[in-house]
What does this fold into?
Amino acid sequence: MKRIITLFLAVLLLFSLVSCGGDTEGGSSAPDVASNSATPDEPTPADPDDVSMINGTLYAVVAEDEVPTRDFGYEEGKLTPERVAEALSAWTGLNFSITSEFDAEYGTYIITWKSDSSLATGQPPMEQNEEFTFYDAVTLRFFMLNSLCRTIRENIGEYDIYYAVEGGDLNEMELGVDFNPGMAYNRNESPKVLG
It folds into this structure.
């Protein structure tokens, strides 16, 4: 009986220490939140003790049947395509540099890829993330287009996504798909479009 009472008190003490979330000597007693072995350069999940933070999910669309995911945190009410792009950049090591505009009349996002983005240059960084290695510009570009489109639609809303590129358009990238500028990317019927 003494063992049960001792065990109960130990669990109660542990629970009260964890729920306090205060600092102790030598560090913080806040719970350690793991997110698929995130490193400081990768997106991390929202702190569960911070009610203004929300968890979202990033989608890395490698192929139709290969879509790794990772949690990321964002401030409540502040999720934008730019925030999604930042989180994808941190996770993949690619430059998802974009601007976005929401068209409330049609319920669509117009995403413009900046000229320094990995999509526009067709070049991955010199040191690629082991998890995401690309050997050609076409594969890299479809990965970026599909990953951003899927992540926006899954986290922000089922909006149509239109893509543009600073100083050009997707058809100039020799992707092997005819992109109609008047059609949303996610509505293109090419088997390469997985957004």
Notes: The two ends are 59 Å apart (CA to CA). Strands lie at 23-24, 27-28, 53-59, 69-75, 98-103, 108-113, 160-165. The longest helix spans residues 2-20.
